[in-house]
């Protein structure tokens, strides 16, 4: 048990699973009291029992402003204030490309991944403004920095990175910091849910992705929810009190450059083209 968040109250959206759950556990370990806002009520109630007196659960759909407002109030009601907001709830969103985009899928993805964090900043920010400051952390993604991870998802996550900068600029006067975290591939149920599995099956299959995920980046291991929780801990704590408007990439090195730079079995595109163009050897 550490004390890096001693005396702080945090609100974590999507705190019942994956990155949010690991962050809830890490924050509690470091002395915070945490409101978990999610839509998985049974898991939320179990978290309340597991961390009796340190975790409160509130049912919250982050696309609904009234639900976010209620979650912020719950923090004040149960724990007397709010110092940290982790805007983290999310899912994979529509897989459609631009030419096939259905506007409902686009709207649902943007509402969850971009409107949700904005509403969180609005309501938590007002409380923090009145209380002398706070730290807001937004889960973005490497999908907000490079193509290849879904159109609507990538646009929403790029929006989250920029939202973090703009909100940081606006709220610094009130001693409120706003930063984003860009996870790479982190082994959580999000992939199963995106593939259409029900929650229970997605929860079960998350661990089975570990082996494949260990080969996706220069670091030869799978990204774990605790890797992101540790970054969130830094932003939540006073150790980062002069850090705002940033986005921290936590991806095991995926974004360093092309695969051939770190995987000796992979060819650079030019190397592959030269092999293809070379005249066949005469016998
Ligand atoms: N896992 C990855 O590889 C990865 C990479 C980059 C970014 N992210 C982001 O990390 C965040 C957390 O994802 P995860 O991988 O832990 O997934 P997860 O599925 O394990 O957890 C997401 C949580 O969000 C909740 N949620 C979904 N919609 C909600 C809503 N409308 N209101 C409230 N809660 C809702 C779910 O119930 C779930 O508990 C997401 O924003 C995701 O986009 C994940």
Topology:
Blueprint lengths: L8 E5 L4 H12 L3 E6 L2 H10 L4 E5 L5 H15 L4 E4 L15 H29 L2 E6 L11 H21 L4 E8 L6 H5 L4 H7 L4 H4 L11 H12 L10 E4 L18 H9 L6
Parallel strand pairs: 1-2, 1-4, 2-3, 4-5, 5-6, 6-7
Helix pairs in contact: 1-9, 3-4, 4-5
The chain binds nicotinamide-adenine-dinucleotide.
Tag the structure with descriptive keywords:
about 280 residues, seven-stranded parallel beta sheet, alpha/beta, about 45% helix, binds nicotinamide-adenine-dinucleotide, Rossmann fold, 10 helices, 7 strands
Task: Give an overview in words.
This protein is an alpha/beta fold and 283 residues long. The chain has one domain (9-257): NAD(P)-binding Rossmann-like Domain (Rossmann fold, 3-Layer(aba) Sandwich). The protein is 44% helix and 13% strand. A seven-stranded parallel sheet has the order 3-2-1-4-5-6-7, with helices on both faces. Helix 1 (18-29) packs across helix 9 and helix 3 packs parallel to helix 4 (103-131). The N and C termini lie far apart (70 Å). Bound molecules: nicotinamide-adenine-dinucleotide. Nicotinamide-adenine-dinucleotide is lined by residues 13-14, 16-20, 38-40, 60-63, 88-91, 112, 139, 141, 183, 185-186, 188-190, 193.
